[in-house]
Design brief:
- It comes from Flavobacterium subsaxonicum WB 4.1-42 = DSM 21790.
- Keywords: Signal.
- InterPro entries: Ig_7, Secre_tail.
- Pfam families: Ig_7 (PF19081), Por_Secre_tail (PF18962).
- The chain has 553 residues and is mostly beta strands.
- It is 0% helix and 46% strand.
- The protein contains no helices and 42 strands.
- Strands 1, 6, 7, 8, 9, 12 and 13 form a 7-stranded antiparallel sheet that branches.
- The radius of gyration is 62 Å and the shape is rod-shaped.
- The termini are far apart.
Length: 553
């Protein structure tokens, strides 16, 4: 018959096994102990045509046949729970069979029986102690094909000190996990057996368990659970690390007058929330309505549960006063916004408080206007101006065509103006009016313009065309030919009378060129003169004079 013994084991595990122990040809035994359920499971194989037995007990002298020691045997039908009665005696069947057979199968000539009982069993049963480190087996089988208990002959033996090894627990369960930058292996979580410890790895097999202080990266990690020295298979766990850098913000920000946190600007990652603080670390985010003051603020970004470090921003509050204005301003009809007066920087005008700035070309109307000034991007409050518009003075009157004698000035032109009015004369060159004094010498076929001012608003301009009247000693200009006209260089003056001099006079009455002559034909070089209209004054030998208009290109 056979004997089984257990010896002390200091380490604990969830379950352990002897593994399959080969007792003799065609006879094996495997004992599994489950400390959670306190059950022992025996897997016993032997020949399918005869009895075989396995003894449990504790012995040191190979004395496995002592009376009262525990054993089991197969009797052709089931596994029998029995006790030894000494050498040569038939075993006694226990009062209760405490082994529950869960499987009894035959493959070829080999029978395999699987049976389970509690650690303590019943009366006469050996008590399995989970902490024992090993066990001794004693075994026997019939010498011939028979299920009657008979002499086993040499078909018996001992298998001593068969060590238990733990049965690895199932792999733990763990789901994908997300962390903020700075998380370590200690932050990872998994679920396993009570009392188990968890080891984390970067590979599915092999390698060394990671220290709890190891920084995590976005990667796949693997977790195993260990009960005593038994480590499970590893479960893969996807880990995602959210890394948030500093938000982008202008280091110095200028805020106008009564700015709030909502006026501060910073840019973060897509989906991130920008938060502002008064400290580099800690504290609560500021509400967007919080009034700003001069000083340093700190901006960070948050995505999910992750927050970045904070960037510092220097905030300057700029308060801009309203521009300086004369509250009442008077202008003439036809004046534009460009004529309004205010002292400041970046002046803008409005027809109402707020709204859209007026174009400088917008015509003025009587009423209120509002001015602001802008300094370093900050617009001030408004200053009000009340505008009064005066109508233009009445236009002067007179003959539109008037004659004059050579050498006479604008003062000789006849024009009617209001008593006390300021009178101003102009010449026109293209679209440009040029003010000229009344002492300006008149030139033939030239239009002069006059305006008067009786209330600070000049009237429209009245034009008078001046025609030269020949004096008694004048010669007939019909006898004089001037060509080419217009000219860009040399002009020829030719007539039937001997000429003694040529003068060129601009439209302001200024003599710009003189040339002596002693012939009936004279060439005058005007190439150095500016482009425009000139009066060519011709003097004859008898002292007579005449004038003609010449255009210099």
């Amino acid at each position: 018959m056979a004997l089984l013994s257990l010896s002390a084991l200091s380490l604990q595990a969830q379950s352990k096994t002897t593994g399959s122990v080969s007792l003799m040809t065609g006879l094996t035994a495997k004992l599994d102990l489950n400390n959670t359920t306190t059950t022992a499971t025996l897997t016993l194989t032997g020949p399918s045509d005869r009895w075989f037995a396995l003894q449990f007990g504790s012995f040191t002298n190979s004395g496995g046949m002592q009376s009262g020691t525990d054993l089991v045997y197969y009797n052709g039908t089931t596994l029998v729970d029995a006790s030894q009665n000494g050498v040569g005696a038939f075993p006694s069947i226990d009062a209760s069979n405490d082994w529950t057979v869960s499987s009894n199968t035959v493959t070829g000539t080999t029978r395999t029986i699987v049976a389970t009982r509690s650690f303590t069993g019943g009366t006469g049963d050996y008590t399995f102690v989970y902490n024992d480190a090993n066990i001794d087996f004693v075994y026997a089988r019939g010498a011939s094909a028979s299920f009657a208990i008979a002499n086993h002959g040499a078909n018996r033996g001992y298998a001593l000190n068969k060590t238990f090894t733990c049965i690895p627990p199932a792999a733990p369960t763990a789901s994908a996990q997300a962390f903020c930058a700075g998380a370590t292996v200690a932050n990872l979580t998994a679920t396993g057996l009570a009392g188990a410890t968890f080891n984390w790895y970067t590979t599915a097999t092999g390698g060394t368990a990671l220290a709890g202080t190891t920084a995590l990266n976005t990667a796949t990690y693997y977790v195993a659970q260990t009960l005593s020295a038994c480590e499970s298979d590893r479960t893969p766990v996807t880990v995602n690390i959210t890394t948030l850098g500093l938000p982008t913000a202008t280091a110095t920000q200028n805020i106008c007058t009564a700015g709030t946190v909502a006026n501060l600007t910073a840019t973060g990652q897509t989906g991130a929330t920008i938060n502002w603080y008064t400290a580099a670390t800690g504290g609560s985010p500021l509400a967007s309505t919080t009034a700003l003051t001069n000083g340093t603020y700190f901006v960070g970004q948050t995505l999910g549960d992750c927050s970045s470090t904070r960037a510092s921003v220097t905030v300057t509050i700029t308060t801009v006063n309203a521009p300086t204005v004369t509250a009442a301003q008077t202008y003439c009809s036809g004046t534009t916004v460009a004529n309004l007066s205010a002292t400041g920087t970046g002046i803008q005008w409005y027809s109402t408080v707020g709204g859209t700035p007026l174009a400088t070309t917008a015509p003025l109307t009587a009423g209120n206007y509002f001015a602001t000034q802008t300094v370093t991007g900050c617009e001030s409050a408004t200053a009000q101006v009340t505008v009064t518009l005066n109508a233009a003075s009445v236009i002067p009157t007179g003959d539109a065509t008037q004659e004059f004698l050579a050498g006479e000035t604008i003062a000789t032109l006849d024009v009617t103006t209001a008593t006390g009015a300021t009178v101003t004369w102009y010449t026109l060159n293209g679209t440009t009016y040029t003010e000229v004094p009344v002492t300006t010498v008149l030139t033939d076929d030239t239009t002069y313009f006059v305006a008067q001012d009786t209330n600070g608003c000049e009237s429209p301009k009245f034009g008078i065309t001046a025609n030269l009247v020949l004096s008694a000693n004048s010669f007939n200009l019909k006898d004089v030919v001037v060509y080419p006209n217009p000219t860009s260089g040399v002009v020829t003056v030719s007539g039937s009378t001997q000429l003694t001099g040529i003068s060129v006079i601009n439209m302001l009455g200024q003599e710009v060129l003189t040339q002596k002559a002693n012939d009936t034909s004279v060439q005058v070089n005007v190439s150095q003169l500016a482009s425009g209209t000139y009066i060519l004054k011709v003097t004859a030998a008898n002292g007579a004079t005449g004038s003609v208009r010449v255009v210099k290109q």
